[in-house]
Amino acid sequence: MAETADIVDDFYGVYLLYNLNPKYKGHTYIGYTRDPNRRIMQHNRGTWAGGAYRTSNKGPWKMVLIVHGFPNNISALRFEWAWQNPNKTIRLQHLHLKKIPRKETEVQFQIRVLTEMLRVGPWYRLPLTIQWLEKDFYQEFPSERRAPGHMKICFGEVKSRNRKTINDTIKPTVKCKLCHEYIKGKELRCLNENCGLVSHLPCLAELFLIPGEYIPIQGNCPFCSMMLQWGDLIKKMKGFNSHSEVKPDGGSDSDDDVVCTQDKVYVDNNSWFLTCDNDIL
Predict the structure, then answer these.
(1) Domain for residue 261, yes or no?
(2) How many Cα atoms occupy the beta-carbon half-sphere of 100 within 13 Å?
(3) Regarding beta strands 160-161 and 8-9, do their DSSP bridges make them parallel or antiparallel, or are they unpaired?
(4) Residues above pLDDT 70, as percent of the chain
(5) Where in the sequence is the domain holding 143, given as residue range(s)?
(6) Which intervals hold domain GIY-YIG (predicted)?
């Protein structure tokens, strides 16, 4: 487990709040954000500052943990909706989560739901990070509900840095080592600095994919045979683009529920991931 976390680029996170107000103490709230530090201030200031209606004038609130590493806001928002509605999502129907058992506090229940969500599709294939922001609330996941091995568990503050890609007219000069075509957008490179692998994202993804799956988890480099985690490759790829600038996030965080109605696999220069699942997540 890492003790500190680096600044995260292209941040999409789903967080858990805990209420410290004696009148509402123990209540929780689940939300989505691109900037956790700004978001907790909004919740504690009220709706006039952009906070949610359900948290306004009920603080102070503390952000206990945040799950990040989602490929885009759609994926994170669907995770948020399912975490808020574990009795409605088709992914957790086998658990029969009707209400919070008397033996559990509300925060314990929410964390238990989270441990179940991390182990079912489509989320169990994503390179997620479970970031504990408050050590006092840390709960070790039971052995039967541990997160998949490729997911990371970290402690401490996390900061977001969201990027905006600048389209340029520079003619591509790098060729994909797998298909031998020029790479017009961002390229994937092996984590081994001495390896010469450079490829399109879809080319390497197709090499790593298991038949019947949509999202790669890991695979061996076709050049140096190093075992590569797909999430680490994507993070490195986002930092490789020399024609990008850091831009503060100007968008607003959403507290709306999201319903998904069809399957779709989204591929572009920046990502390869399952954006949608059947029916309600």
Answers:
(1) no
(2) 15
(3) parallel
(4) 78
(5) 8-162
(6) 10-93
**Residue length of the chain:** 281
Q: Across the chain, how many H-helices and E-strands are there?
A: 5, 15
* Residues 32, 82: Cα–Cα separation, whole Å: 12
CA distances from 153 to 41, 108, 130, 192 (A): 24, 17, 5, 24
Residues 78 and 200 in one domain: no
Distance CA 74, CA 12 (A): 9
Q: Tokens for 280?
A: 């309600």
Threshold 0.85, pTM exceeds: no
Burial (0-12, 13-18, 19+ Cβ within 10 Å), 205: buried
* Tokens describing residue 88: 């409605």
> Which CATH number goes with the domain that contains 241?
3.30.40.10
pLDDT in tens, 60-80: 999 999 999 998 889 999 999
Domain count, the chain: 2
Helices (H), the chain: 36-45, 73-84, 106-117, 201-208, 230-240
**19 & 61 share domain:** yes
Bridge partner list, 227: 220
Same domain, 187 and 225: yes
104 and 20 inside one domain: yes
Q: In this structure, which amino acid lies at residue 268?
A: D
Closest CA to 108 of 80, 140, 77, 151: 140
